[in-house]
Amino acid sequence: MERTSSANDLTERLRRRLENERREIEELTASELARLAENSRRVARSALGTIERDTEEATGKMRELLVKAWLRPLIVGLSLWLGIFGGSWATMCWLARSIQARIETRAELYRDIEDARRTLAELEVDTWGIVFHEIEGEPFVVVPDEALADPAWWVDDRPALKLSNE
To answer: What is the DSSP string of 100-143?
Structure first.
């Protein structure tokens, strides 16, 4: 049995061989594509992890900057508020003490004035209303209105007696 090949046999063998090679190429391609897909997924996961870490780190830095950015004005504002409040409070305390001291001083002065008026009233009663007065170096005694019938001298619309310097 001799084997002779015909064109159909050759074509059939070439077709099977091409089919086998095509199947091998497809399997290799599918295998390579699967490996490439897995590598792509791993690279994508790695990149995503890196991006997430970098984003978290940047967010942390941003939070820190924001806290510092708000903290300074907050501290300055709080310090100003405390300074103004403290200064106002101290000023109000000082003013209250000053006003209280002046009220007490005024009350004491009113008491002193009333004491002086009472003393003056007592002196006028004790001296019968007689007052010594000096006009241009001349001494006068001012007496009550009814004390002199026809006074020769008048001082502040009241009768007076001129005293001699000799």
So the answer is: HHHHHHHHHHHHHHHHHHHHHHHHHHHTTT-EEEEETTEEEEE-
Q: What is the pLDDT of residues 58-95, one digit of tens each?
A: 999 998 888 888 888 888 999 999 999 999 999 999 99
The least confident of 91-95, 105-109, 118-122, 147-151 is 147-151
pTM score of the predicted model:
0.42
Look up residue 108 and give its two tokens: 């004491």
According to DSSP, the β-strands at 158-162 and 131-135 are unpaired
What residue segments make up the domains of the chain, in order of their start?
A: 8-126, 127-166
Q: DSSP characters for 29-81?
A: HHHHHHHHHHHHHHHHHHHHHHHHHHHHHHHHHHHHHHHHHHHHHHHHHHHHH
Q: Are 150 and 135 in contact, with CB atoms under 8 Å apart?
A: no
